Fold this sequence. Notes:
Helices cover 32% and strands 22% of the residues. It has 423 residues and is α/β, with parallel strands linked by helices. Mean pLDDT is 92; it is low at 7-18.
Amino acid sequence: MILLYIIQISEVFISICSFGSMNNSMLLEAVKNFESPLYIYDSNKIKKQYERLISSFSAVKQLQINYAVKALSNISILKYIINLGSGIDAVSIQEVQLALKCGIKPTKIIYTPNGVSMNEMKKVSELGVKINIDNLSVLEDFGNKNPKIPICIRINPHIMAGGNSKISVGHIDSKFGISIHQIPHLLRIVENTKITVNGIHMHTGSDILDIDVFLRAAEILFEAAKNFNQLEFIDFGSGFKVPYFPNDSETNIEELGEKLSERFNEFCKNYGKDLILMFEPGKFLVSEAGKFLCKVNSIKQTTSTVFAQVDSGFNHFLRPMMYGASHHIENISNPNDIERYYSIVGYICETDTFASNRKISTINNGDILCFNNAGAYCHTMSSNYNSRYRPAEALHINDEIRLIRKREVFKDLIKNQIDIFNQ
Ligand SMILES: *Cc1c(COP(=O)(O)O)cnc(C)c1O
């Protein structure tokens, strides 16, 4: 009897803990409640990815993941990720402020600006966050003014990596990082300004598939790190590729974890101190968690193409136009019909093609299309172009879909505009 009771209790416990992922009927229900277009993020997927990263590097004594806010910056998402134990990677003072508003300790934030004003850097340093500098003249200037503030150095390892020239940031012509060939100059500045270098960092780009490229860049970083004897952490940045389609390739995090952990531990042994291994993933944590839902306004058959036109455009979902990104699109309101070829386009008065010649289950007016991988660099890149409202956002958590950002309304469009003819 008691045993039965225990079994029942544990079943209840399991059903509380293991919430299912989002299915089509939940997504359709959410569109009914919150209207389209709508972004929905699955908290379970974010958690799974976070835990996957942690367990891949379990051989390392001290690991810190710093979520890159710029991928998806909604405060409910930030709080959720911070609660998992994550730190924060911020690229602007506003991202630092957002993270602080979400209750994180300043020491768990690393600020990695590029080309910002000295004034902003000073203000951020006063907030007590880690500062990452990627420019020798900025380092010299900042170091002279604030010799007591420890600094992390962003190294450019000159590795060509990344899925697209806009997101490949570690190559020779990149504006990011301090070249490994400038290390002697860097050391002179450190000596003259008497600053403490507490970390070494790299971030070579997004969508890196080949882990050998990653490991080669890591070796360069280890070489650079040997020049500094007060390090607390080594930050390997991010750039992991995630799958965009069923059976698409992705960075083998588990293999990378195994190989890099071993190499990192060996480095720490030689260095004589257990350093913190850091990563700052954006896309890896949130890309696959996101779905973008929009409604089909019309089907337009031309001489060569069938267009499905949705109630959105590159104002809401820029990646296909900006990076040539390909996102998997499903017709979730009519998923099992005959498949036909469609070009999915928006309502912006400019070319806004989301996908060309895609085989999708027959689309009718009013159908709801679901774009996958809509978590990273989607809502954060949305705009009011064509004077449209930015979409609402929702979070799937504890088996519920909750609104985390209201859809804009007309007032939002004009709130900062000044009508000089009506004063
Ligand atoms: C954008 C960015 C990241 C996150 O890159 P993902 O490809 O989204 O993982 C990490 N670090 C820095 C410095 C960045 O600018």
